[in-house]
Amino acid sequence: MLNRRLLRVKIMQSLYAHFQSENGDIYKGEKALLLSIDRVYDLYLLYLILPIELANVAAIQMEEAQNKVLPTEEDKNPNRRFVESHLIEALKQNKTLQREVSNRKLSWSSDYDELKKLWRQIRNSDLYKNYLQEEDGGAVDRKFLEQLFKTFVLDNEDIYSIFQERSIYWDFDDNDFAITMAMRYFSKIKSVENYKPLPQMYKNEEDDLRFVKQLFRQCITNDAENSKLIDQKTQNWEVDRIALMDVLLMKMAITEFLHFSSIPVKVTLNEYIEVAKLFSTPKSKNFINGVLDKLLTDFKNENKLKKTGRGLIQ
């Protein structure tokens, strides 16, 4: 589930923290890095069970309305379409999901008031009212849940604040990624019996963990040499004009070029340019691309690029 770009971003953030620390401990830094990656998966699981939690809130409110002294006809016979939809039932019956949530001790129970507020917004919306009027069907339910997340969950500052208070490892980008991946999973639920297995945290745990640890460690180990390489290609630049994030991203790219034989040069180059667009200055992508291109020319001329297998792809 966690793609290499996200892993690179997490490594970048951990390296930044390490180099900013006066007494950076590589082992503590690596432990924190792996924990920050694990927390993204927690966030993903929390968003997967959010529809269940909203359905529970809705069911409780429907029961309370039925028990009023003078219930209306709508109170007596509420529309339970969302509460009893196949999507909600499929998520409830997903044993792998429920086991992961239980093992990781994840819950929305402490945020019940916030869930009530969120459900009130949904219940009073035209989106929900129109959904109740549409014909029954799995495609309609999936579309409604997708629109619900886009309208009420994505960029929801109240929910984001909740997660910020829970963990220092969750940031805005983690939140968006987790929501997007949860929506992607919902779109694959065709019925209670027909849904895709829950994605594992890593696509290939052994390979991805090796990538994370080696890139983090080698960027630190080879920092002096990488700095020298960058200095040679930026002699006409004043040091304080080069963004620290640009330097860090170039050091990561150089490490991949020289020490990760299975990763194609083009993949590395494209990945760090894309990360620069997200985390550095508007001009960073062109600057980083220019410096790395010059370094690649030197590496090729000096026969320093030792690519094998998939890494040979141009």
Short characterization:
This protein has 314 residues and is mostly helical. It is built from 15 helices and no strands.
Describe the structure.
With 314 residues, the chain is an all-alpha fold. It folds into two domains: 162 residues, no CATH class; 91 residues, NusB-like (N-utilizing Substance Protein B Homolog, Chain A), CATH 1.10.940. It has 15 helices and no strands. The longest helix is centred in the first third of the chain and has 41 residues. It is elongated, with a radius of gyration of 24 Å. The model has no long low-confidence stretch (mean pLDDT 92).
SS element count, helices: 15
Range of strand content: under 5%
- Helix-strand makeup class: mainly alpha
Biggest pleated-sheet summary: none
- How many domain units? 2
Helicity range of the residues?
A: 55-70%
User: Spans with pLDDT under 50 lasting ≥5 residues?
Assistant: none
Record field, number of beta strands: 0
Instruction: Give the oligomeric state.
Output: single chain
Q: What best-fitting shape do the alpha-carbon axes yield? A: elongated
H/E topology pattern: HHHHHHHHHHHHHHH
Average pLDDT for all residues: 92
Cα radius of gyration in angstroms: 24 Å
Distance between the termini: 26 Å
